[in-house]
Amino acid sequence: MKRSPLVVIFTTVFIDLVGFGIVIPVLPYFAEGSRFNAGPRTIGILVASYSVMQLIFSPVLGRLSDKHGRRPVLLISIIGTGIGFLILGFATTLWMLFLGRILDGITGGNISTAQAYVADITTPEERAKGMGLLGAAFGLGFIFGPAIGGILSRWGVGVPFFFAAGLSFANALLLYFTLPETVTPDHPARVSAARGRGWSQLMKSLKQPRLGFILSIYFLFIVAFSIMTTTFTLYTMFRFGYDAQHNGYLFAYVGLLAVIVQGGLIGRLVKRFGELPLVVVGALFFAASLFVIPFVGPERGGLLALLVGGGIFSLGNSLSTPSLTTLASKSVGPADQGSVLGVVQSVASLARAVGPALAAVLIHSAIAYQGADGIPHFMSDHSLFTTFWTGAGIMFLAFLLAVYFARAHARDYSSGAVARP
Questions:
Q1: Taking 70 as the threshold, does the pLDDT of residue 194 lie above it?
Q2: Domain spanning 3-179+193-409: which CATH class is it, in words?
């Protein structure tokens, strides 16, 4: 594995996800404020608009990275993200918020392209470790991004977006001057694209039952993850009275655990157990955490119980998502890495559109009202439980699919093997 390019791509993804993480605790408060007065359903649609654009454009950007190289696609996507953040920071109307998120979604193919870059420079045996490093960059983004967003919001809700825009443009400069291209003229992806066989090969790869299972499980994971992240901020706001800064610290804690698992442990665990068992265990942990968290409140376990539930959630997600990405990468040859990983991110984008929309509908009846004593109360604890338990049910279905898939295809996906279409 070439260490220097991997360090550069790790840094690139880290900086990008710090900017992404800044948005998480801030955007709901920003949109809900007096300037925009958006309700929970509007906020859910706002979050989903970003993912819908990624759903449409991720496979396109993935194929473009196969044809024209990883560097230009990464560069364009990061610049687009920076412009999107500037629009959010300067927004004076609700449509400007949507414009900023839509633009970021259109150009937001950097994760799949970064994954394809890692696939280019790693062997199949080392790929899970490389994908885990990208997961660690994601986790670090969750540590620093939400915390920075929460702190900067004290000087104005628009300030975090301007800071994120500055990070994006600095990131683009770093990439331009330091990241070498991996898709050389003789690279299988470029040769395939030159022969005009790219899309037909991609369609053939996507018809694999094994890859279909992987994408289905991954979709369920991201739907549940999106329900969790969309609901969690509102849940802690109304149940614990937390603001953006408090939630920033909670997301930072979740991100720290993700860094420990994905940055330091996932490579060793895959070598010992393989990717499929980690997906099974991770799905079970994830489902358990979503089932338990709504029972937690200031009078029932308090902050400690909230941290335990969040820790189990982070562990389950950290074990499973890099393993699923690695399995998808191993399902195709070098010519289709960008395209298939673009499809993986497109599936994730669809899930990120479905998850927040579903959460917005489920939690709508659980929005707090102001009681006579001035303390927020939940209109319906049953509705709150339903939201989290829906996510738990989705994850339990993912667990059952993962168990079946592991039993049926364990030999096809040994730790060091590459499954060919």
A1: no
A2: mainly alpha
